[in-house]
């Protein structure tokens, strides 16, 4: 993807996941591009929690990209 589309998709990804209540994270600009930002501070977090977040992100990304394909 070009930078503009990548930025838009990352913002959509963050908004979708937050709106569904599965996880919360933010985005920031890094090197002029939108980057997803996860803050892990909870001492009781385990590897399984991170793996769950990765799966949530992947499923949401698949849905967004499938919708993009349908609209193209």
Which percent range describes the beta-strand content? 5-15%
Unreliable stretches (pLDDT < 50, length at least 5) are none
What does the main sheet amount to? 2 strands, antiparallel
Put simply, the count of helices is 2
- The H-and-E topology, N to C, reads as HEEH
Gross morphology is globular
Physical arrangement of strands within the biggest beta sheet: 1-2
Instruction: Supply the helix-strand structural class.
Output: alpha+beta
Q: Kindly, what is the distance between the CA atoms of the first and last residues, rounded to a whole number of angstroms?
A: 14 Å
Helix percentage range: 55-70%
- DSSP summary, beta strand count: 2
Describe this structure in words.
The protein is of the alpha+beta class and 72 residues long. The protein has 2 helices and 2 strands. β1 (26-30) and β2 form a beta hairpin.
């Amino acid at each position: 993807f070009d930078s503009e589309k990548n930025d838009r998709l990352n913002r959509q990804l963050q908004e979708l996941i937050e709106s569904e209540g599965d996880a919360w994270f933010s985005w920031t600009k890094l090197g002029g591009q939108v980057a997803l930002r996860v803050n892990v501070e909870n001492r009781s977090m385990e590897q399984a929690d991170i793996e769950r977040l990765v799966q949530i992100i992947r499923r949401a990304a698949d849905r967004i990209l499938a919708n993009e394909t349908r609209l193209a």
